[in-house]
Amino acid sequence: MALHIYNTLIRSKEEFVPQNPGKVNMYVCGPTVYDYIHIGNARPMVFFDVVRTYLAQIGNEVNYVVNFTDVDDKLIRKAEQLNTTVPEVADTFIKAYHKDLEGLGIQKATIHPRVTENMDNIIDFIQELEQNGFAYEKGGDVFYRTNKFPGYGKLSHQKLDELQFGIRINVDERKENPEDFVLWKAAKPGEIFWSSPWGDGRPGWHIECSAMARRYLGDTLDIHGGGQDLQFPHHECEVAQSEALTGKPLANYWMHNGYIKINNEKMSKSLGNGILVKDLRKEFKKEAIRYFMLSTHYRNPLNFNAETMDQATNSVERIANAVSNLKHRLDTVTPDGHGPVREELKQKLDGILHRYYEKMDDDFNTPDAITSIFEWVNEANLLLQESVVNPEELKAMLTVFDELNTVLRLYAGEEAELLDEEVEKLIAERIQARKDKNWSRADEIRDCLAAQGIMLEDTAQGMRWRRK
């Protein structure tokens, strides 16, 4: 079975055929780096990393781009709150982002371009739109003429005169039409700015991705992805900008993941129910968080609660136990006097792999792919019950597991437990770091210990620690 992807543009699944056989260009909208990422931000990062890794597993070279929006109203406000600069805010939270992604078992993209590193490219893009009659300047701001692009609304399947506009599209009397959106914003006093043909300012939100996608991946992407909330207006506006300029499809396949709810409620700032990844990682192993993210099909909503995380924890522990027991048995079994792998076991393992690829080829059906791992767990446990075990069969089991786990990554290997002396040494270093007001190092040590299940307690007798 060939890989089939649900394409948001046509609202159905179709066979995935890259423009260049064996090579895939893939762009996913990244975060606005003004704060730590929450689990809603993490879902597309986990899922599209799975997409990228699976495409590689089936023989493709993947050029994967995830951008950073590192100048924005939110960054400007955050810089004012912290009495620092926008670049310093961006640098801080880009570092935090990479730390969180590493903590979720996610690889870095091929490239993570930043808006501020692409300003000339963005300005050139806007100028071309203006020259072609798709953009106009009013009072230092530049707007896009939506009614000049006949395909506006095709991605979200809405008609221009019926569109319900998102909160990022504001009514402005200077616009020729209410639906027009901003490409360039004139700088307000005291704001960070760049010089442009229209005066000092900075880019609008939508133009950034159009310009960076074109620069790093060309006029047409194989896959463009992001959260469901980006479908309109962000991705719709990207389509209008890019296709007006190039006359080519911006992307051949559009993919959007569903929302995350918290205890069946929408995650929102007004409800105060957002969960930061850095906090989630202190409580749960990355394998459990990945299991939670991948146990529901990516296009469906995902509900976070204590019960689902307990289930995820128990599930990855079951997987880890099976792998650990197999490895231990292989280390202790006598290597001599055994024949080849039994045909019956070969057929079972081939069947497990076949079903795994079949499910992943069906629009990245990770819940059913996880089922294949548990089929493997059952076979592993049955093999371990035998009084005499062939080491070649143990090796065959582990080889198949490695193939299943390459993309899903629900098992990360055995973690060496910190010895008591190492814990005491780290605590002493943390105490000294706090005396030296080296807060970042102190926090790093605290997080390291927490990840190892070491809890710190301040008492009248000083700092004490215990294992969870």
Note the main attributes of this structure.
single chain; 468 residues; alpha/beta; four-stranded parallel beta sheet; four-stranded antiparallel beta sheet; 15 strands; 15% strand; globular
Task: Please characterize this protein's 3D structure.
Strand 3, helix 1 and strand 4 form a beta-alpha-beta unit. By secondary structure, the protein is α/β, with parallel strands linked by helices. The strands form five sheets. The chain has a four-stranded parallel beta sheet, with helices on both faces. Strands 5-6-7-8 form a four-stranded antiparallel beta sheet. The protein is built from 14 helices and 15 strands. Helix 8 (286-294) packs across helix 9 (306-332) and helix 11 packs antiparallel against helix 12 (391-408). The chain has helices at residues 39-57, 73-82, 86-103, 119-131, 205-217, 231-246, 277-283, 286-294, 306-332, 343-361, 366-384, 391-408, 420-435, 439-451, and strands spanning 4-7, 12-15, 23-28, 61-66, 135-138, 141-144, 181-186, 201-203, 221-227, 251-257, 260-262, 265-266, 302-304, 454-459, 462-467.
Low-pLDDT residue intervals, each spanning 5 or more residues = 164-169
Secondary structure: helix percent: 40-55%
What is the approximate shape? Answer: globular
Count of DSSP-assigned helices: 14
Tell me the structural class. alpha/beta
Largest sheet: 4 strands, parallel
Distance between the termini: 47 Å
- Strand order across the largest sheet: 4-3-9-10
Q: Assess the beta-strand content as a share of residues.
A: 15-25%
Along the chain, the helix and strand elements come as EEEHEHHHEEEEHEHEEEHHEHHHHHHEE
Number of strands: 15
Cα gyration radius (Å): 26 Å
